[in-house]
């Protein structure tokens, strides 16, 4: 059967990753969370006190960074590893969220991540979520989705996710971080977050998870069968 690539872009915390993950599972495709890659790079920069304004330091950090996703047979989930170490939980914490946008704005960081992402999708059968997937990583993706949601819906969902992992954050703090990241991600020079004209917009503010998954699956099946 024909395999396609699916690009899901959009603002912070509107359900891109969870939807992409489930869609990939139902299609038996590979799910790639590109945000996890920028988060892992950010964690490395923080752990190693890399001065991100110093190009030489950034370049040598990038040479030392290796990111991979491993399937955990117990949870059935894909987990992020940085230089062989499990970082899936650490990269979701607020202190990483607060530093990720400036790191993701660095050209050398983007060049390195985009090359890996394109490699992962070269045989198609990939669902990837992020900010520049439809515009830069897979401009030839057969299906392009742009997701958005209200501040309230996004913050409530993110708060619940953090709580589940034992981190407490107020709705105000979460909304502030989303808005700051959205602003920086949309206004940076290198591959900013944009909605490409051919993208199909899905507002998840009032959608149940199952409905947003089904919407994407219906669109995907039209492309696969068509
Ligand atoms: O899950 P959440 O919406 O909070 O964010 P994420 O998808 O994990 O992405 C974290 C950050 O990585 C974003 O705020 C962007 O700064 C950056 N990012 C990016 O620049 N390009 C991508 N393709 C994906 C993420």
Overall mean confidence score, pLDDT: 97
**For this entry, what is the oligomeric state of its chains?**
single chain
Largest sheet: 5 strands, parallel
How large is the radius of gyration? Answer: 17 Å
What do we call the CATH homologous superfamily of the largest domain? P-loop containing nucleotide triphosphate hydrolases
Number of helices: 9
Q: What is the end-to-end distance?
A: 11 Å
Number of strands: 8
Assigned CATH architecture of the largest domain = 3-Layer(aba) Sandwich
Catalytic activity: dCMP + ATP = dCDP + ADP; CMP + ATP = CDP + ADP
Domain Cytidylate kinase: 6-221
InterPro entries: Cytidylate_kin, Cytidylate_kinase_dom, P-loop_NTPase
Subcellular location: Cytoplasm
Description:
The structure is a single chain. The protein is an alpha/beta fold and 226 residues long. The protein folds into 2 domains: 1-29 and 128-216, 3-Layer(aba) Sandwich (Rossmann fold); 33-124, P-loop containing nucleotide triphosphate hydrolases (Rossmann fold), CATH 3.40.50. It has helices at 16-27, 34-47, 55-64, 94-104, 107-120, 133-137, 151-164, 171-187, 209-225, and strands spanning 5-10, 30-33, 67-72, 77-82, 85-86, 126-130, 143-148, 200-203. The strands form 2 sheets. The protein has a 5-stranded parallel beta sheet with strand order 2-6-1-7-8. Strands 3-4-5 form a 3-stranded antiparallel beta sheet, with helices on one face. The model has no long low-confidence stretch (mean pLDDT 97). Cytidine-5'-diphosphate is lined by residues 12-13, 17, 34-35, 38-39, 100-101, 104, 130-133, 181, 185.
């Amino acid at each position: 059967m024909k395999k396609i690539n699916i690009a899901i872009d959009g603002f912070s915390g509107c359900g891109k990753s969870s939807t992409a993950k489930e869609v990939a599972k139902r299609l038996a495709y590979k799910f790639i969370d590109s945000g996890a890659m920028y988060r892992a790079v950010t964690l490395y920069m923080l752990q190693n006190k890399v001065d991100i304004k110093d190009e030489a330091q950034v370049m040598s950090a990038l040479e030392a960074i290796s990111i991979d996703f491993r399937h955990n047979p117990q949870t059935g989930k894909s987990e992020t590893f940085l230089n062989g170490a499990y970082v899936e939980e650490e990269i979701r914490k607020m202190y990483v969220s607060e530093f990720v946008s400036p790191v993701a704005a660095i050209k050398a960081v983007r060049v390195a991540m985009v090359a890996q992402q394109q490699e992962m999708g070269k045989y198609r059968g990939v669902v990837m979520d992020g900010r520049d997937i439809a515009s830069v990583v897979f401009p030839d993706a057969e299906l392009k989705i742009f997701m958005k949601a209200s501040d309230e819906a996004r913050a409530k969902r993110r708060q619940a996710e953090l709580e589940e992992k034992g981190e407490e954050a107020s709705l105000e703090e979460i909304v502030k971080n989303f808005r700051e990241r959205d602003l920086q991600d949309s206004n940076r020079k290198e591959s900013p977050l944009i909605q490409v004209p051919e993208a199909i917009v899905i507002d998840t503010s009032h959608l149940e998870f199952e409905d947003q998954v089904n919407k994407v699956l219906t669109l995907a099946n039209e492309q696969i069968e068509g």
